[in-house]
Amino acid sequence: MTHIEFKAIPRRKLVDEVLDQMQTLIRSGRYKSGDKLPPEPELMKLLAVGRSTVREAVKVLTHAGLLEVCQGDGTYIRSSSTGLAAVSQTLTPKNYAHILEARRILEIEVTGLAALRRTDADLEVMRSFLNQRNDALEKGRYAEYVEADISFHIAVAQAGKNEVLLEMYKVVAESLKEMLSQLILDTRQYEDNTVYHEAVYAAIEAGNSDEARKSAIQNLDAVHRSQVYHF
To answer: Which intervals hold domain HTH gntR-type (predicted)?
Structure first.
């Protein structure tokens, strides 16, 4: 007997659904640049979710450059963009390509150096940020995830013990934060590359420079696939 091929239904987090709805409202033109979002209690009621879910969604959309939070006033639509196809006011699609090129050159090198020069203290810092990253991603705390992910990579660069490369990487990291925030908005298509991060850490811990570089390349290739899909 031939069975119809079924696919597992992915479990989605509440914050994923909220992000989808808010982006749809912006794409459809329901909310335009400069419009003010309803206050937090009203959003909680409209979306039938808790305060933490609303706040997490707003954080992610703010990091991505789609919302602007004005303390004491409210939250406003920063861009009348069409969702993920749009870019922030400070970065263009061309610049994204340049950022990824610079990241690739720097990250492969600092990861290889980290495997040769890391200390036990360096490993503790990297492991801590990696655990925070993985936990935040699993629980849908995307703003926290972005911060921890970038912090992990900076910790790797610090372990490479080259101050010039470290400072160069920090400059790139600022742009990576905004780019990653935009990529993760599409929770259905975002490619979870945790396995590559774990492989990077394992190779650095083992002192295997070649394997560390290889794992860094695999991670960067995964990022490139997401970047091509969205931009």
So the answer is: 12-80
Segment 55-65, tens digit of pLDDT: 888 888 887 77
- Residue 204: give the domain boundaries: 93-230
pLDDT at 8 over 60: no
213 DSSP β-pair partners: none
Asked whether 222 and 196 are in contact (CB, 8 A), the reply is: yes
Instruction: State how far the Cα of 165 lies from the Cα of 67, in Å rounded to an integer.
Output: 33
CA 2 to centroid of chain Cα atoms:
42
> If you write DSSP's letter for every residue of 4-46 in order, what string do you get?
PPP-PPPP--HHHHHHHHHHHHHHTTSS-TTPBPPPHHHHHHH
Please report whether residue 48 resides in a domain. yes
**Is residue 98 located within the same domain as residue 191?**
yes
Q: Outline where DSSP puts E strands in the chain.
A: 67-70, 74-77
Residues 77, 26 contacting (CB under 8 angstroms) = yes
Q: Which of 156, 135, 153, 154 is nearest to 144 (CA)?
A: 135
Handedness of CA 57, 60, 65, 71 (dihedral sign): positive
- Asked if 50 and 160 sit in the same domain, the reply is no
